[in-house]
UniProtKB/TrEMBL annotation, chain A:
UniProt name for this protein: Aminomethyl-transferring glycine dehydrogenase subunit GcvPA
PANTHER family registered for this protein in UniProt: GLYCINE CLEAVAGE SYSTEM P-PROTEIN, GLYCINE DEHYDROGENASE (DECARBOXYLATING)
Keyword terms of this UniProt record: Oxidoreductase
Superkingdom to which the source organism belongs: Archaea
Coiled coil regions in record: none
Any Gene Ontology biological process: nucleoside metabolic process
Pfam family, one: GDC-P
Gene3D superfamilies according to UniProt: Aspartate Aminotransferase, domain 1 (3.90.1150.10), Type I PLP-dependent aspartate aminotransferase-like (Major domain) (3.40.640.10)
TrEMBL record, chain B:
Gene Ontology cellular component annotations, sorted alphabetically: cytosol; glycine cleavage complex
Organism: Natronoarchaeum mannanilyticum
EC id: 1.4.4.2
A GO BP annotation: glycine decarboxylation via glycine cleavage system
Name of the protein this chain belongs to: glycine dehydrogenase (aminomethyl-transferring)
Organism ancestry: Archaea, Methanobacteriati, Methanobacteriota, Stenosarchaea group, Halobacteria
Pfam families: Aminotran_5, GcvP2_C
Domain Glycine dehydrogenase C-terminal: start-end pairs: 369-464
Start-end of Gly residues biased regions: 30-42
GO molecular-function term, one example from the UniProt record: glycine binding
Alphabetically ordered keywords of this record: Oxidoreductase, Pyridoxal phosphate
The keyword Oxidoreductase is assigned to this record: yes
InterPro entries xref list: Aminotrans_V_dom (IPR000192), GDC-P_C (IPR049316), GDC_P (IPR020581), PyrdxlP-dep_Trfase (IPR015424), PyrdxlP-dep_Trfase_major (IPR015421), PyrdxlP-dep_Trfase_small (IPR015422)
């Protein structure tokens, strides 16, 4: 049944319809408030074009003309603000201890103010570099940030999110690997949605996705070894894992992978990479992840896909690259480069279909990282380790609770085992104002980012109550 | 002559804003380890060192981290200066063809900030009813505007929408035991993303040559269609700004061989309230909500590319979709869903802005926006002294620079304080200048654009060779940027 037919005007629209007397536009009710045309200008333009009305310019055959209504009432700014405030106010006030790929770190005010500067906000892809030097320099600085964090030489200036970046990594591996192969190996502990996106990205190729098992929250090296053969194109691992465990055997994973002539792709994020082993030094060929842990607060899963790789693969990289060059005056200047890889030039032979990316989020991430500086980044990362460790220890002291389940170092989040149903615990905690993940019958996952001590005290007390 | 962008003296080396790494490099030693090779610094960079007390064993951590460490006031000036070296819609006309660079209402930014009542998508559905309601309402609005029966908001950009749409087409054919269909037909003038998205989904792309009038040639289409056709991807009006008047015949021809008709929503701004893709026979479409519904383009993203489909394709849409239930709203996965094209639910903040924009304009405002966009394109095409083949135009037109190099013309236009059109595309017009003024330009600013076009075209071609002269940077050597790759400040060491 068509939406348009089944959904009549909703309650709020009817309310709005009652206010129809108030003009909502600059000139008169019913026009776009953002078309600046005055009556005399419009008349002059129509006359220059040689028509009596703009309607004559629509070259649409009568048979497909739309003569109905959408049934959408125009509202004023204030009314829409009220409407959204009221609508979003229906979200419960919950302290979220949720992670699994999307994290809420505090974003400094500088990021909002600078990124809202309209020159940045209202520009588009830097196809004319001479008038886009500022944005290009920020993207160049973003790339440089991740060259430092990953140790890899090539960083593009954004994919949509970690899941799509992983998908692009697999198609890159398929292109660059000398021998043909069909399998992409991913950890058993992987966010299901991330795996689904990967499966869609490789659905147009011969690649298949298979899981290898985990041992106590880390890669089961023996199991991986058994699965690996020269039919594997790429092995993917994460640190921290989706359960927050820091991976301890990355060098071994890389060695096994390379022994079978496959690419090693590592998933991580910029805060973790500020502290953890440099991916290049453990043998990563590609690094993907969600970079929006810097720059974006919780925003319903909106992200920023990090994509870094080795110099060898630069001509196979998806997405945009900003390079330094010189201008006619001999001074350093920045420009998009290697655009012949991209879809607007190479069409179906492009390295990716990505056009609009997440440039503005990358700008926010770069500003946030600069604001923290190396000391701030390392402190933020150390806090993510210490807070998870302390919170797990406190929950472990609660009768009937074991935390963390995996005997590993953790980052931001960890899994706890409980004697009672995880679903019930999660529901009871939500009633007390806290959201956590229920993973399994008796596993809950808890993520702490910038929560203050008092909030965590209340959470531990609530946890004691619901497990009692 | 009016100039729209902050301009810096170009004879003074100091006009260039140094990289952050040229201002400072600080090395933090992780775990208090005893490395003694501290910050080396760029030519002018101050260097310093600090130690951390890592809670992790040394073999799990890096040895050190070297990045700039600057104060907030220093950063505020750095980025403010960089913003002044960036040209946006708020700076002046930005008629970049097919990109729909509209003015972005300021209040939509504010309501998106309000939406940083933003929640984690994994919180229980009963506790995120406000978010789900907003998304449901946007699904509903988009369905009405496009004449589509069902909408999924997940794809995070237009090309992601194309990919999702093609996955839906494939799932539909496979479901009907028609999995042998392995070709997607794309007109030669189509957006490059169409080709790339179809190829990413594993299809052979069949390029359809244009007809003499710049539109689809029905005979050529008949020649391209076969029992292997999965879909035809079309934008209407097309990239020449021309409405495909034979759209019903096109739809019939595609449907006759069992193919699906895909609508690229990049040009939807020209049709609001005049025609709907669903009514024209399209089975699948994506909406570039950041174009049609005025979300700031943010230097190249984020966008959002929701897809809409006809009823028969609804079961294949990406998950999640939103529907009302007895207690409010819930997500659901359609029966034969293609799954996911984004790790979560897409670009939420962009969707909020799109909702607010649509609500602000309503039926009449949306229709008026299209009328003014079409009027502006036709007026500008009329005012400039250039060959503009084909016609009549909807919201964009493609002028030909004739014996001049279109890219050179664009560089010289920068000196007149405007953003130039898209150049050299589509290729069917020689030396193409693809121009889309949108509805937000006044007659005065269209006249400024026309004056810039005409001034450049009436000059000797040599004047363009040294252009631009009045911008933050002069002509940038893109060849050497590609030949001598320097993609990070680390690669500049020693310069």
């Amino acid at each position: 049944m068509p939406l348009a037919a089944t959904n009549g005007r909703d309650r709020r629209s009817q309310q709005a319809a009652g206010d129809e007397g108030a003009p909502v536009t600059r000139e008169s009710a019913g026009g776009s408030p953002y078309a600046p045309h005055g009556e005399s200008e419009t008349a002059a333009m129509l006359s220059a074009v040689g028509v009596d009305s703009a309607e004559e310019l629509f070259d649409v055959p009568e048979s497909v003309r739309f003569d109905g209504e959408f049934g959408i009432d125009a509202r004023g700014e204030r009314e829409i603000r009220e409407e959204l405030r009221s609508m979003l106010g229906r979200n419960d006030d919950l302290v979220e201890l949720l992670g699994r790929g999307h994290y809420d770190h505090y974003v400094p005010s500088l990021v909002d103010h600078i990124s809202q500067r309209s020159e940045f906000l209202t520009s588009y892809t830097q196809y004319q570099p001479e008038i886009a030097q500022g944005f290009l320099q920020v993207l160049f600085e973003y790339q440089s940030l991740f060259v430092e964090l990953t140790g890899l030489e090539i960083v593009n200036c954004s994919m949509y999110d970690a899941a799509t970046a992983l998908g692009e990594a697999a198609t890159l591996a398929d292109r660059v690997r000398s021998a043909s192969g069909h399998r992409v190996l991913v950890p058993e502990h992987l966010r299901a949605e991330r795996r689904d996106v990967l499966a869609n990205y490789v659905s147009g190729t011969d690649l298949t996705v298979e899981s290898y098992s985990m041992a106590d929250g880390n890669v089961d090296l023996a199991a991986l070894d058994d699965l690996l053969d020269d039919d594997a194109v790429m092995v993917y691992a994460e640190t921290p894992t989706v359960r927050g465990a820091i991976e301890e055997g990355l060098g071994d994973v890389a060695d096994l992978t390379h022994d079978n002539d496959a690419l090693f792709c590592l998933g991580s994020d910029p805060i973790a990479l500020s502290l953890l082993e440099e991916p290049a030094s453990v043998g990563a060929d590609v690094v993907v992840g969600d970079a929006s842990v810097l720059g974006l607060p919780a925003s319903y899963g909106m992200g920023l896909g990090l994509f870094a790789t080795r110099e060898d693969y630069v001509r196979q990289v998806p997405g945009r690259l900003v390079g330094a060059s010189d201008d006619a005056g001999g001074r350093r200047a920045y420009t998009l480069t290697l655009q012949t890889r991209e879809q607007h030039i190479r069409k179906e032979r492009a390295t990716s279909n990505i056009c609009t990316n997440q440039a503005w989020v990358a700008l926010r991430t770069a500003i946030h990282a600069a604001w923290l500086g190396p000391s701030g980044l390392v402190e933020e990362a150390e806090r993510a380790v210490e807070q998870a460790q302390e919170l797990a220890a406190r929950l472990d002291a609660v009768p009937g609770v074991e935390a963390p389940v995996h005997d590993r170092h953790h980052f931001r989040e960890f899994v706890a085992r409980t004697d009672s149903s995880a679903d019930e615990i999660a529901a009871d905690l939500a009633d007390r104002g806290f959201a956590v993940h229920a993973l399994d019958d008796d596993l809950v996952q808890i993520c702490a980012t910038d929560h203050d001590d008092a909030t965590l005290d209340e959470f531990v007390a609530a946890f004691e109550e619901v497990t009692a | 002559m009016k100039y729209n962008q902050a301009r810096w003296s170009r004879d003074d080396e100091d006009v260039y804003e140094p990289l952050l790494s040229e201002k400072d490099e600080t090395t933090v030693e992780i775990g208090g380890g005893g490395s003694d090779d501290g910050g080396t610094g760029g030519a002018d960079a101050a260097s310093s060192e600090a130690d951390s007390g890592s809670p992790l064993p040394d073999d799990l951590t890096r040895d050190e981290l070297t990045l700039p460490e600057l104060s907030e006031p220093e950063l505020a000036r750095h980025y403010t200066r960089l913003s002044q070296m960036t040209y946006g819609v708020d700076s002046g006309p930005y008629p970049l063809g097919s990109c729909t660079m509209k003015y972005n209402p300021k209040f939509t930014e504010d309501v998106a900030a309000l939406a940083d009542a933003a929640v984690h998508p994994d919180r229980p559905e009963r506790r995120q009813q406000g978010t789900l309601e907003l998304l449901y309402r946007l699904q509903d609005y988009l369905g009405r505007i496009g004449g589509m029966d069902a909408v999924s908001l997940q794809p995070p950009a237009g090309a992601a929408g194309e990919f999702a749409g093609i996955l839906v087409a494939r799932a539909y054919h496979e479901h009907n035991d028609e999995g042998h269909r392995d070709e997607v037909i794309v007109p030669e003038s189509a957006h490059g993303t169409n080709f790339a998205s179809a190829a990413l989904a594993g299809y052979d792309v069949v390029e359809l040559p244009g007809g003499e009038d710049g539109r689809v040639d029905l005979d050529a289409l008949e020649g391209a269609l076969s029992e292997n056709t999965a879909a035809l991807m079309l934008t209407n009006p097309n990239t020449l700004g021309l409405f495909e008047r034979d759209i019903e015949a096109i739809a019939e021809a595609v449907h006759d061989v069992g193919g699906l008709l895909y609508y690229d929503g990049a040009n939807l701004n020209a049709l609001l309230g005049r025609a709907r893709p669903g009514d024209m026979g399209f089975d699948i479409m994506h909406y570039n909500v950041h174009k049609t519904f005025a979300t700031p383009h943010g230097g190249g993203g984020p966008g959002a590319g929701p897809i809409g489909v006809a009823e028969k394709l609804a079961p294949f849409l990406p998950a999640p979709r939103i529907r009302p239930d007895e207690m409010g709203y819930e997500r659901f996965e359609p029966d034969h869903s293609v799954g996911k094209v984004h790790g979560f639910d897409g670009n939420w903040l962009v969707l909020v802005k799109a909702y607010a924009y649509i609500a602000r304009l309503g039926d009449d405002g949306l229709a008026d926006a299209s009328a003014k966009a079409v009027l502006n394109a036709n007026y500008l095409a009329e005012q400039i002294d250039l060959d503009v083949p084909y016609g009549p135009f909807h919201h964009e037109f493609v002028a030909s620079a004739g014996d001049r190099d279109a890219a050179e013309v664009a560089k010289r236009m920068l000196d007149f304080g405007v953003h130039p059109p898209t150049t050299k595309w589509p290729e069917i017009v020689p030396e193409a200048l693809m121009t889309e003024p949108t509805e937000v330009e006044s007659k005065d600013s269209l006249d400024q654009l026309a004056a810039a076009f005409d001034a450049v075209m009436s000059e000797d071609a040599d004047a363009a060779a040294d252009a631009p002269q009045r911008t933050a940077a002069r002509r940038i050597d893109q060849t050497s940027a590609a030949r001598n790759l320097r993609l990070s400040w680390q690669s500049l060491d020693g310069e």
